[in-house]
Every structure is written in C-alpha cells, then in structure tokens.
Design brief:
The complex is a heterodimer of chains A (about 350) and B (about 300). With about 350 residues, chain A is of the alpha/beta class. Chain A has 14 helices and 5 strands. Chain A has 2 domains: about 120 residues, 3-Layer(aba) Sandwich (abc type-2 transporter like fold), CATH 3.40.1710; about 200 residues, no CATH class. Classes of the chains: A alpha/beta (about 350), B alpha/beta (about 300).
C-alpha cells in the first residue's frame, strides 16, 4: 500500500471528495440565484415587493432596471437566472382591483435550478403586499391576491428535463471518452515500449502528439453527430442557435479533453493508473459542472473549481446555442475561458511530455 | 581500420534527479567496427546509447555521431541510425508485415513495398508475414526488431542488449547477421553482458557506475588488465575454493563448469597461493590465460570496491 500511492489516494480521496462534493457543494434547492428586476414603476407597493425579494434567500438582485426590454439581455446571456418584470401602471391597476401581472421569467434551460425559487415567488409576493393592504385597500386583502404572478419558463417552456440533460450529455460523453481513450492509448505506448520506437525515428514529439490524437478527434466528431441526431429525432430538442458557434465550441472542447488525456498519460505509468486518474477528472466534472446539479446553487469554492473544468463552459455553450439561440457573441463568455483552459493544458502536456523523454 | 569515426563523443554526463548515471564518458567508434559495450546492470549503458542517438540530451559533454552534432542535430542523426531497444518495442497487435510497413512509413522511405518485401525475405520471415508480432517467440521477435531497425538502411546500428532471452542458436544466427552488415560497412555499437557476445566484438568498452573502466581492442584486453590465472581441478572443489578464497594474491575465484579459475594481478603472490593447494589430494593445476569473463568479473569487483 505504501508503494502503490495512487491506489491509496483513490481509497482515501474518493470518500473525502464525495463527502465534500455531495455534502457541501451540491444543493438541489438552489438559493441566492442571480435576479434582475425590471421595475417600470416606482411606488410604495413595488418598493415593498422589491424589499420582499431582497429579504428572501432565493433571489439575489444583481440589478434593477427601469425600462422595458432592458432586463432581457441579462437572462439571455445567462448572467441572471430570473427576470422579474413589474409593468407600468402596476400600482394603479392593483388599487383598482384589475389584478395586474407580475412576470417572472426564469431561465429554464436547467429546469431544476429554477424550480424552488419559482415556488417561493408567490409566497414572497403575498408577504410583501399584505402589510400595505390596509385601510381603503382592505377589501383587496380578503379576496384572491390582487395581482397575478405569471411564470414564464424561458428556453424550455414545458420544463422538459431531457432538453437540459441531452445536450449536456454530449459534453459528458466527450469528456469520458476523449480523456480516457487518449490517456490509455498513450500510456499503452509507454507501457509497451513502442513510444521509444516512435521517438527513435525522425518523428518530432509534436508529430507523435498529432498522430496519436487525430483519430480521436474523428471519434469525437462522430459522437457529436450521434448525440445531436438522437437529440433531434428521439427527444425533439429544438435547435435554435448558431450551428457554427456550437461546432466551434465542440472543437475546442474536444481538443481540451484530448490534451487533458495527454497530460494524464505523461503522469500515469500504467494504463490502470490512467484509468484511475481519468476518474478523478470525471467525477468533479459531472458533479461540479452544472450537469447533474445546478451550478449556481453551489458555494463559491465549488463554483471556482467548476469554472476551471472544460465541461462547465462547454455545457453553457451547448445550452446557449441549442436552447437559447445564441450565436458567437452569446457564447464568447465561455469560449474564451475554454480556449484559455486548452492553451494551459496543451503547454502543460507538452512540457511534461518532453520531461518524460529525458 | 581507418581513422574516420562514426561516433566521437567526449565528456558526456547525464543526471537523473541529482544522481549521476553517466559521468564524463568518452567514446570513439571507427567506421565498420563492431563495438561491444559491456557493463553490469544499471551501469549506464542504455542511457549512453540514448544520448548517442539523440533520444536523450546530455547534461554536459559534446560530440558527433555520423559527423552530426549529438546535441543539436538529433533529428538528422535519427534518420541514419537504427536503434534496437532492449525490450521488444514494436506493435504486438499488428502483423509482421504491418509493423515493417509502419516503420518504413515513419522514415518516409520511397519504394516502401519493395523494401518491406526485401526485409521479410532477408530475415526469412516471408512465410510468416501475416502473423501477429505478439505471437512470435523470443528469437523471431528479435529478428523482426532487427529487420525493423535496418529497414531504412542505417549507417550505424545501436543494439541495446539485443539477445536477452534468446536461445544460443538464434543468438549465433543474429551475430552472423551483424557480421554481414559490418562487412557492408555498417557500424555497430552493441551493449551486452554476455561474454560469448563480447568476444564477437572487435573492440570493447567496459562501463560501470557510469564510468568507463577500459576501452580497447578485444584481443588486447587481457594484456592490458594483466590478470594471471590458474585452472584448478579437484574432486572436492568447494574445499579448494574455501582455501584459496581470501588468500593473499588471489583476487578472484570463479567456477567454470567442473573447473575452478583462480586469478590475481600479482603473479608471484598468486603462484604462492596456488602452491598451497597443489598438494591437496587429487588437485591438478594448470596455468592459463585469463579469459574475458574473469577479467570482467574482476573489473566489476574492483569498480564496486572503488565506490564503497
């Protein structure tokens, strides 16, 4: 056991990792979700509602805007999960008993993430307005609520879980196969000594690298096609965004995973170790990327780890292009970090690769 | 042999994590020579070979291989060198033909098909061309490996313990092949710790603990080391060996089949020691010339002493 530190690490680290992740990081009832309020009217009632939202643990108000349409970009870019719209004339119409609407638009591309907060919205509104419905307004308090909360699940109106899972699955499948296949295939070359044959020929290390990864790029491309076709035919997932932007994201993501596999192969001495290390990458990728559990519900440190994982950014790219109709500009926020991860992984892998030769 | 050197390196030094594996190593190998590279396990033979062919960058030192700088022009060196690794390192799940074809493609050889067929024919592998490399016996694997590193017709052949685990007949055939290449002007540097291979070499460099202890034509080595030897036969060799061992003047006693060889550098002291056992019952002694094996056991013992 003392000599086989990796197995030891697996036995000790796995429970610790799982305890930390499941215990602290994962939360199926996410609170403190970024919210933008489009407050087109200012008055005692609306201010009370705003205060009520602020007090609730579900909504974190990151911005209050005044004019129609201003809030939309926040939710489209993914920087806010909720957009709450209080329309013009809200107060007057409420007093008249016309039951004005409050619109809560949720980014339902991940239906689980938005669920809890939407449930709480009614209660927040009731409590905020109740203290003000006194005196002449008292009759309003006795009947049905004098306002109407309309919930609008954006990008996934029927809250279909598969709309969220299937595009995300593309990222999970690519992570799993690309990292594992590359790391194992390369470790096998070292294990069997064939890498030495390759290096004794005039091939350059970079050429070996390209030769060993090109076939898997094709494998990744085939998997992408498979998942997208299955998503369209079996699960009727609407494709609304820019296909080119998606392809660009897929391409960078495949390269990043190949480089990760390459990096693992320079550390692992046996194929078995490569498998174990792949698992160490895979577990946090599934749990912390926002694939299984809402990203925004995690504590800040878990989100930090998540931001460093290629899958996190890829999931956002996929969801934004497929479900939210984003084009290149819409996914730039995630393409740039993904590219940065790719560059970092490539340089690290190249550095390590040179060292293994010496 | 003419003065042209295929390998000419000086001061080669390589450290792995602070441990010096090869220390200030120099070597000159003339064209067409079969150069033996001897030393105990872990003495730095493989590391030196890798530095010569450009797989490893030396920490210190300089030199040329085939007239090319070993530090700067490793890519060019690799094109003209055939390197056969210690372990079988071709693809076991590819057939013999596929392996040869693959190697030929790595060197971007023109007229690939003909070369592959020629290599198969030369080594008597034509009948087995479609067999998977992994299913071959040790001797055949070694033949295949040699064919693979000769396919681009290199001028220098680097063989790292090529005949480990190969039966004596196959080893003989292998050496015949090497001699045939040498006759065509191919230079060979071969590392080994088998004495029957060492005697096949024109010249021998002996390396231990990263340092070169001796470097001379094979024929001259006994004279240089100056080791004297007696062959002893006796009904009870164990008793004789026990008497001789530790006796002043006897530096080495080693069993060779039914004989015992006693060796020492100081001729008179050795003779005196042998005189002591001469009168034991049934003992016969003959003066012999020390063989390579005794010499190398002696050199190894010495180099260990020097480091302890």
């Amino acid at each position: 056991m003392r000599r086989d530190r990796l197995t030891f690490a697996i036995m000790v680290m796995m429970p610790v990792l799982q305890l930390l992740l499941f215990g602290y990081a994962i939360n199926n009832d996410p609170r403190h979700l970024a919210t933008v309020v489009e407050l087109r009217e200012d008055g005692p009632l609306t201010r009370a509602f705003l205060a009520g939202l602020r007090l609730s643990s579900y909504f974190d108000i990151i911005a209050v805007v005044r004019y129609e349409g201003e809030g939309d970009q926040w939710i489209r870019s993914g920087s806010a999960t909720f957009l709450i719209v209080v329309p013009e004339g809200f107060e007057t119409r409420l007093v008249r008993g016309e039951r004005p609407q409050i619109l809560i638009a949720a980014d339902a591309s991940d239906p689980v993430a938005a669920g809890g907060a939407l449930g709480a919205a009614n209660e927040i509104a009731r409590r905020s307005f109740a203290p003000l419905l006194v005196g002449p307004l008292l009759p309003l308090a006795t009947k049905a609520p004098p306002y109407d909360i309309v919930i609008h699940r954006r990008f996934n109106p029927a809250a279909e879980t598969s709309f969220n899972i299937v595009p995300g699955l593309l990222g999970v499948i690519l992570t799993m196969t690309m990292v594992m296949i590359t790391s194992i295939a390369l470790t096998r070359e070292f294990e069997r000594g064939t890498m030495e044959t390759l290096l004794a020929t005039p091939l350059r290390p970079a050429e070996v690298m390209i030769g060993k990864t090109t076939p898997y790029i094709l494998v990744g491309a085939m998997q992408t096609v498979l998942v997208l076709v299955a998503g369209a035919l079996l699960f009727q997932i609407p494709f609304s965004g820019s296909f080119d932007a998606l392809l660009m994201g897929v391409g960078i993501f495949i390269f990043a995973n190949l480089m990760l596999g390459y990096l693992i192969s320079t550390v692992a001495r046996t194929q078995m170790q490569a498998m174990q290390m792949t698992f160490f990458v895979f577990l946090p990728s599934i749990l912390l990327s926002g694939f299984m559990f809402p990203f925004r519900a995690m504590p800040w440190w878990a989100q930090m780890i998540g931001e460093a994982l290629p899958l996190t950014h890829f999931l956002r790219i996929v969801r934004e292009t497929i479900l939210k109709g984003a084009s290149f500009s819409g996914i730039a926020d995630d393409l740039v970090p993904l590219l940065a991860i790719l560059v970092a992984l490539t340089s690290l892998a190249m550095m390590r690769f040179r060292r293994t030769l010496d | 042999m003419n003065g042209e050197s295929v390998i000419d390196v000086r001061g080669l030094t390589k450290r792995f994590g602070g441990r010096v594996v090869v220390d200030d190593f120099a070597l000159r190998v003339p064209r067409g020579a079969i150069y033996g590279f001897l030393g105990p396990n872990g003495s730095g033979k493989t590391t030196t070979i890798r530095m010569v062919c450009g797989l490893l960058r030396p920490d210190e030192g300089e030199g040329t291989c085939l007239g090319l700088d070993v530090r700067q022009e490793s890519a060019l060196i690799k094109e003209r060198v055939g390197y056969m690794t210690q372990r079988f390192s071709l693809y076991e799940d590819m057939s013999i033909r596929e392996n040869l074809d693959f190697v030929a493609r790595l060197y971007a050889l023109p007229d690939r098909r003909r070369r592959v067929e020629a290599a198969l024919g030369d080594l008597g592998l034509s009948g087995r061309a479609e067999q998977l490399a992994g299913t071959l016996s040790g001797g055949w694997k070694q033949r295949l490996a040699l064919a693979a590193c000769m396919i681009h017709e290199p001028e220098l052949l680097l063989l790292d313990e090529p005949t480990a685990g190969v039966d004596p007949k196959a080893r003989r055939d292998f050496w015949d092949q090497i001699r045939a290449y040498a006759a065509h002007g191919v230079t060979t540097l071969v590392s080994t710790h088998y004495m029957d291979e060492a005697v096949q070499c024109d010249q021998i460099a002996f390396i231990a603990y990263g340092r070169k202890l001796i470097d001379a034509p094979t024929r001259e080595i006994p004279g240089i080391v100056g080791l004297h030897a007696w062959r002893v036969t006796a009904p009870d060799l164990d008793a004789v060996q026990a008497r001789l061992r530790g006796h002043p003047g006897v530096e080495l006693t080693a069993r060779f089949g039914a004989d015992l060889h006693a060796c020492g550098l100081d001729r008179e002291a050795l003779d005196a020691a042998v005189a002591v056992i001469r009168d034991m019952p049934g003992v016969e002694v003959t003066r012999i010339e020390a063989g390579l094996e005794e010499i190398f056991i002696h050199l190894m013992a010495q180099s260990t002493d020097a480091l302890q």
